[in-house]
Amino acid sequence: MRESGSPYVRVPAVVKTLFDAFPLKLYPAAPLPNTTAGATSDNRMATVFVESASETSIYPESIRLITLLKMAKVYQNVSVVEASVHSAPETESLPYIYRAKQHKLGMKLPRAIPSDGPVFLSFLSAVSSSGVATYNEARDAPYLALVDVDLRHAFLFTVYHIPENYRRFVVPMHAALSGKVLAETLASSARKKAREVLEKSIGTTDVMNPAVQESIYDSAESALDALQDLLTESDGMYLSGTDTPGVVDAALFSYLWPSLQLGFTDQGNPARLYDMVQGRKLLVEYVESIRRSCNL
């Protein structure tokens, strides 16, 4: 209630007592992240929006994009911004690239480029200084499917549906991006989305069923066997069959590297996904080769 002639609202006694007991502390405003679409520094060709700039995060899509840019030797020419999906103004999901105006590249490309699909590959081809192996759909699509379906399912289950990994990685990652207050809510939403992806792709409504879990890991094992066989038969050191890494290599690396490095567990023991990768010596050597070549 406002007293006559006073510009201030009168604080009820009970509220005043509360604030006397627990004084309101004022903190300086935190600096805002540079998430303005199109904001690039100096002569950078683009701003890359990712959920995590770490090469060992729980976001394979971000790892894949960073790896491809390093393979193409253009990573130093982009600005990398960590952002939540809510600050991605041009696309529905992260990661994506926002091309700087001054970099026309002599082709018709949208300013906002999702990091998957032919548009991104055209962008990468145009800016590459090293010649990342060209994506050959007939050759690469079947193996890319093994990564983005079978291996992805096992990764999603390991990260989001084994409780200890969810608590160790998913919640802290969202706390780092959006603050502790929103971390639990956003992490829960991410776990729900991961479950929906699994249920839709596998065709079940019970991903926690032990039989379904076994099927997920069996499919991932078969995928890893097929990819390791391809490396064995390859004339080169990469899945493209050459000495130049390509799109499938970046995709496979984006799941294998964090699976080896993050130390996923299950009831205190190494998680099955870790054992599956660690037990395949050729894949471990392959990951190390890409890590060295990309300076990760």
Secondary structure tally, helices: 10
Name the helicity range.
Answer: 40-55%
Q: Please, what is the average pLDDT? A: 79
Element string (H = helix, E = strand): HEHEEEHHHHHHEEHH
In spatial order, strands of the major sheet run: 2-1-3-4
CATH architectural grouping of the largest domain: Up-down Bundle
Q: How would you summarize this macromolecular structure in one to three sentences?
A:
The protein has 296 residues and is of the alpha+beta class. The chain has ten helices and six strands.
Overview of the structural elements:
Mean pLDDT is 79; it is low at 26-41 and 86-92. Helix 8 (247-261) crosses helix 10 (281-293). The termini are far apart. The chain has two domains: 46-127, no CATH class; 137-293, Up-down Bundle (Glutathione S-transferase Yfyf (Class Pi), Chain A, domain 2), CATH 1.20.1050. Helix content is 52%, strand content 7%. The strands form two sheets. A four-stranded mixed β-sheet has the order 2-1-3-4, covered by helices on one side. A two-stranded antiparallel ribbon has the order 5-6. The longest helix is centred in the middle third of the chain and has 24 residues, at 137-160. It is of the alpha+beta class and 296 residues long. A hairpin with a 2-residue loop joins strand 5 and strand 6. It is globular, with a radius of gyration of 23 Å.
